[in-house]
Design goal:
Blueprint lengths: L13 H51 L7 E9 L2 E11 L5 E9 L5 E10 L2
Antiparallel strand pairs: 1-2, 2-3, 3-4
Subcellular location: Cell inner membrane
Keywords: Cell inner membrane, Cell membrane, Membrane, Methylation, Transmembrane, Transmembrane helix
Membrane topology: Single-pass membrane protein
């Protein structure tokens, strides 16, 4: 009886290679999206941190100078980390005439609100 030899193949079939390429492409696309989201979040964190510094600096300056602000609204520009942020300060009266409520809101250059801090400023 003669033995029949089956030819064996070396390598992968075309379908196997295409499946592997598709899996790698999906993994790379997901990694790219994750890296993009991480970059966006780090930029947002940097903007919010700088905006918070602007608001805190303004409120602390009011407290340290012992300035009792007039009721009303004012706008200014606050430079931080090489960027300019829009600072909007709203001063409101409180129930006690010896105190004022000061809201400091900071937005980026496009006007997107980033942070809002409030403080109560006493009359000294």
């Amino acid at each position: 009886m003669k033995r029949v030899r089956r030819p064996f193949s070396l390598g992968f079939s075309l379908v196997e290679v295409l499946v592997a390429v598709a899996i790698v492409a999906i993994a790379l696309a997901a990694g790219g999206r994750a890296a993009g989201a991480l970059l966006d979040n780090s930029q947002r964190l940097s903007d919010v941190t700088a905006a918070q510094w602007c608001a805190e600096n303004h409120l602390v300056n009011l407290k340290l100078t012992r300035y009792f602000p007039d009721v009303g609204e004012s706008n200014s520009v606050c430079p931080q980390l090489g960027r300019e942020y829009k600072l909007k300060v709203l001063v409101r009266p409180s129930f006690n005439p010896n105190f004022r409520i000061v809201d400091a809101g900071v937005a980026d250059a496009q006007g997107v609100p980033l942070v809002r801090l409030s403080a109560i400023i006493p009359r000294y």
